[in-house]
Structure formats: C-alpha cells, structure tokens
Specification:
single chain; 335 residues; alpha/beta; Spore Coat Polysaccharide Biosynthesis Protein SpsA, Chain A; seven-stranded mixed sheet; 9 strands; 45% helix; 15% strand; Dolichyl-phosphate beta-glucosyltransferase; Glyco_trans_2-like; signal-anchor; EC 2.4.1.117
Length: 335
C-alpha cells in the first residue's frame, strides 16, 4: 500500500511538473512570437528573367486583378531531373485546353527554392520555348522550405484559380479536371469559362491519396506504417478534422481563398499544408477532398524519420501557438 502511495505521489508530481513546464513554455512562446508571419523577400526575388528579351521584369502581385484562368505554382528544390517530365505533361494538357477553349489562359511559375543544381536553367529553357507569359521562373536567393516557396509563388500569381503541384509529377495533371469540377460545385461558377467570377469566390479542392492507402500499407514497412498512422492521428488531434490526406501536393484554390490562407501562413516546411487547411477550416472556407491518381517517384526530399518528426513537432506548435493566441489569422470568418 505504501509503495502504491509513493508511486501515485510520483505520478502526480510528474504531471504537475509537466503542466508547469507547459505553462512556462507557452508564456515564452507568447512573448517571443510574432502574431502574423513576416515574409522575408530579397530585392532579386521581385523580378523574373525573360530569356527572350534578356531582361528582368517586375513580378505582379496577387492583390491585383486576375488576368488568367489558372496559375500553376511548382516549388522546386534541386529538381533538374524530375522537373522536365512534370512540365511536359502539364504543358501538353494546358496547350490542348487552349485548343478547346480559345480564350483560356494559364501560367506556370517554377519557384526554385535556392536550388544548387540546374533547376533554374531547366525552367528557363521551357520559358524560352513557350514564352514568359506561359512559364516563368522565380529564383529564390535562399532556401525557404516548400511552404515558403509556394507562398512566394502564390504572391506573384495572375490566375483566377491557383494550383500548386509538386515538381516530381507524382499526381496526374489531367486530374485537374476533377478538382475544377469539385470547385465549380462549391463556388457555382466555372474556372474555365468564368474566371472573373471565380477569382472573387472562396473555395478549395484538394487532391487525396487516401483511397490508395490499403495498397501502400502492403508495400511499406511496419515502422513506416506506424509513423504514418501516428502522423494522421496528430493531424486529427491537433489541427485538421475531416480530411483524410492533408499532404498531397495537388491543391486548387480560388484566387481569393489563396490570398486569405497564405497571408496568415507561418509554417514554411513540410507541415505547411496542414496549417493552410487549418486556417481554411477556421475561416469556414469550403474544402472538398477529391481522389486523384498518384505514383511514387524516386528522388523524394522527405526523409521518413527526420521529416516526420519535424512535422509532428510543427503540428504541436501549430495547435499550441494558435491556442494561446501567439499566432493569429488575419481574415475574418466567411459567412
């Protein structure tokens, strides 16, 4: 009985100590954290190089009126090998769409996230072939992380709809049709024929690989499956409810929704998708999750253990910082 009493006292002490440390940590975070993100941007990152005119041109701003149907943001860090097949597939699809809809206009913004290889050169070769109205490269001076790269690309987008797509081409680009159809159901206007109306609406259509999970379970190791389920649980516990796959790199925003969500985004690395969806849910922005085709491509920058631990820590910090008011969302809820 005495041993049990000692054990119980120790447990109570440890819980109290843990709560005390959490309170002190929360106070420290609140006092040292900026409520809104401060986006660092170098002077060189305000322009893009036009390989045809051999001049640097000032990038537009998302606060300006849209002039295109679609902007495709492609974050790329050392992607000289995986980027060409992705761009080939994307450009073929979009060029064919122009043949079907003569007024349709698009742009692809490749955001080189401080790449050390020939990623910029690869993108510029495509810009020279298709013209900078259709493809331009935003070269970041230093690595920001995937979320930071996507954010800076979005800030310079001209599209009424804004899609960010991974440079590895793991998602089939033609599945954009599925996302557009789902977005159309939400906002009640057509991204292809009514871009001006789409631009002012708010809505997200996100690709999902959840339907492929059973197949993935059979090919992954037990340890990786445990990590995957642990990450899904933390997402559900701390941040986003009702979405099965937060990490698929194939998400379509209306221009207004992208502006609202990205201006409050704090996380620059792998967990940025989760914070984006968290912000959207907090603001009552409609989100629809659509199954898309997906193929694992070699060369992933995600290190299974290190990246997932980092994402787990980010999830906890997202929850805690918003909970204590250290982080705030700029916009009001959507009625």
């Amino acid at each position: 009985m005495e041993l049990f009493s000692m054990l119980w006292t120790s447990v109570i002490y440890l819980i109290g100590a843990g709560v005390g440390l959490l309170i002190l940590f929360s106070i420290f975070l609140y006092l040292t954290t900026k409520p809104y993100p401060i986006v660092k941007r170098h002077k060189e990152e305000e322009t893009f190089f036009d390989p045809i005119t051999k001049t640097k041109i000032k990038l537009p701003n998302i606060n300006e009126a849209s002039t295109l149907n679609l902007s495709v943001i492609v974050p790329a860090y050392n992607e000289e090998e995986r980027l060409p097949p992705m761009l080939d597939e994307t450009l073929e699809f979009l060029e064919n769409r122009i043949k079907e809809h003569s007024t349709y206009k698009y742009e692809i913004i490749v955001v080189s996230d401080g790449s050390k290889d020939k990623t910029v050169q690869v993108a510029q070769n495509y810009a020279e072939k298709y013209g900078s109205e259709k493809l331009r490269c935003l070269e970041l001076v230093e690595n920001r992380g995937k979320g930071g790269a996507v954010r800076l690309g979005v800030q310079n987008a001209r599209g009424a709809s804004i899609l960010f797509a991974d440079a590895d081409g793991a998602s089939k680009f033609e599945d954009l049709v599925k996302l557009e159809s789902a977005l159309k159901d939400i906002i009640k206007c057509d991204p292809i024929t009514e871009p001006n109306l789409v631009s002012a609406k708010v809505g997200l259509a996100i690709g999902s690989r959840a339907h492929l999970e059973k197949e993935s379970l059979a090919t992954r190791s037990l340890f990786r499956n445990i990590l995957m389920y642990g990450f899904h649980f933390l997402v559900w516990l701390f941040t986003v409810k009702g979405i099965k796959d937060t990490q698929c790199g194939f998400k379509l925003f209306t221009r207004k929704a992208a502006d609202i969500c990205f201006q409050s985004l704090h996380v620059n690395r792998w967990a940025f998708d989760v914070e984006l969806l968290y912000i959207a849910q907090k603001l009552n922005i409609p989100i629809v999750e659509i199954p898309v085709r997906w193929t694992e491509i070699e060369g992933s920058k995600v290190t299974p253990i290190i990246s997932w631990i980092q994402m787990g820590c980010d999830l906890g910090l997202i929850w805690l910082k918003y909970r204590i008011g250290a982080w705030k969302i700029k916009s009001d809820k959507i009625d």
